[in-house]
Amino acid sequence: MGGRPAVAAAAAGWTSACAHADAGLRDLQTAARQWSCSGSGRARETLARACRRLADDVDAQTADEEATLLPLLDAHLPDAGWAAITRTARCGLSGLGLALEDCGAADRVRLLGGLPAGTRLAWRLRGGRRYRAAVVRLRGAPPAA
């Protein structure tokens, strides 16, 4: 698999799979919120199905990428291209931001309260805004909380 049409087809398939995974993440987010509000068994089962579906989709996409796209990148992207990507590609989502986003209000207060004063100050002055901006760039929407 090396010609331009094959590469274009692989890239289109990857784009479609990424869009499908994004939709799965949004479905999972909706199911999680419904379960957190209702606490019902039905909502819990819906959430579990959404988790399993997304996990299966990610497994399939990853296997396809490893079998198809990585060899294409290896064949068509020179070392200088990889170096440029690794210099500029970084995730702006901090572990603290991810943890705070997943917490409820009381847990956020406890988590921040357990941090050193300098870390809390840095988060309040700059970290929170940087995290929000990175989430908006990545997801197209602000963080959940």
Layout: helices, strands, pairs:
Elements: H1 4-38, H2 41-76, H3 79-88, H4 95-102, H5 105-113, H6 117-139
Summarize the structure in short.
This protein is mainly α and 145 residues long. The chain is 83% helix and 0% strand.
Task: Describe the protein in words.
This protein is 83% helix and 0% strand. The chain has 145 residues and is an all-alpha fold. The chain has two domains: 4-88; 95-139, no CATH class. The longest helix has 36 residues, at 41-76. It is flat, with a radius of gyration of 20 Å. The model has no long low-confidence stretch (mean pLDDT 85).
Q: What would the principal axes of the Cα set say about the shape?
A: flat
Radius of gyration: 20 Å
Structural category is: mainly alpha
Order of helices and strands: HHHHHH
Q: Name the assembly state.
A: single chain
- State the distance separating the first and last CA atoms: 45 Å
Helix content: over 70%
Instruction: Look at the structure and give the mean pLDDT.
Output: 85
Note the beta-strand portion.
under 5%
How many domains make up the 3D coordinates?
2
Give a quick account of the main beta sheet: strands, pairing sense, barrel closure. none
Low-pLDDT segments, ≥5 res: none
Total beta strands: 0
The count of helical stretches stands at: 6
